[in-house]
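Most newcomers find our protein records easier to grasp once they have seen one. Nothing more is needed to start thinking about how sequence determines fold. Here is such a record, shown just as it appears in the course material:
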Amino acid sequence: MGETEDRLRVLEDKDEIRELTARYCLAIAAGDVEKIVTLFCPDGAFVTSAGESVGSDELRRFYDRGGTTNKPFVQNHVIEVSGDEAVGRCAVEVRMVSDGEAYTAAGEYVDLLRRVDGRWRFASRDFRPYHRARLSDGWA
């Protein structure tokens, strides 16, 4: 490929990765566990401070947490593409209701991404929280 084609490919890759993140947020908000799992590589992982879920079966169990409603909103994407792999970071704000109590949280996702069968997927998605607060507590 020539330089122009290479640059265009990177721009298309970054756009697809941003859309992957948007599809993830929409699937989380809809509680669509099967859709969420398809956005990960078959050996993909979701990582939190509480541990990690690796592979489709563990991811399915992790995301099937009845009783909690999460609505994530992402922004500030920074994506570095290198062939069929990429590293991405984005900020996230999450609105949630758990056991009837409303919360807000903020943090960032650090993503390792891989192109699988021509489509970008999460190889790992590491959630790094900044804070979580009950909305009833008000703002300090």
